[in-house]
Amino acid sequence: MGTTITFKRPDGKDATGYLANAARGNAPGVVVIQEWWGLQDQIKGLCDRFAVAGFDALAPDLYNGVVVPYHDTDAANKEMGSLDFMDATKQTVRGAAQYLARNGAKVGLTGFCLGGAVTVIGSTVIPELAAGVAFYGIPPEQAAKPADVKIPLQGHFANRDDWCTPQVVDAFEKGLKAAGKTYEFFRYDADHAFVNEQRMSVHDRQAAELAWGRATDFFKKHLG
Q1: How far is residue 195's CA from residue 174's CA, in Å, rounded to a whole number?
Q2: What are the pLDDT digits (tens) for 119-171?
Q3: Domain with 56 in it
Q4: pTM, whole model, 2 decimals?
Q5: Are 66 and 82 in contact (CB under 8 A)?
Q6: Dienelactone hydrolase domain location, by residue (predicted)?
Q7: Number of domains in the chain
Q8: For the chain, where are the alpha helices, taking DSSP H only?
């Protein structure tokens, strides 16, 4: 349904990504950020699904063509560990947001795992955004403080998660509440990456569909 495109980062460098367009013209945009596996087909499928829901969706390739097989957690950890999160967010992700906003459309940001953390960082540093939805990812406090979040933020988290732990989620939510931010957090009795239907060991269809409905409703509310 979608296609691979090249777009400009704010620093003038080229970046690539997967773009799926909604059927209607001048649709609101959603930037979709990969898990630590890279720009997998599953993420491209989510872009297609956002397009069906009425959004232009662009998933920038933060690993520059590297896609890690699902079983190779060591390689995924190595790729994520070598990623410059601030450069990826302020340049590649912001460039994707600028691309979607070029005709005046409102733009949101969402991401999963690694992409959830990037979404939270983006909510503090990307001025083109109107809303964010993070799935089971929160960055270290030095990368993004709750008080610095500038847009309405929705979060979806797993109660059985040893990476983005319930304690981390609770602490970030407490910070958002104390700072008077517009947010809503949802927790699911599921495992990390429960939305990924290609990983049957962790996928929870009921939780995934509930989260998807909440996310698309949130974007429709804030992006139009």
Answers
A1: 25
A2: 999 999 999 999 999 999 999 999 999 999 999 999 999 999 999 999 999 99
A3: 3-223
A4: 0.98
A5: no
A6: 17-222
A7: 1
A8: 41-52, 73-82, 85-87, 94-100, 114-125, 166-178, 205-223
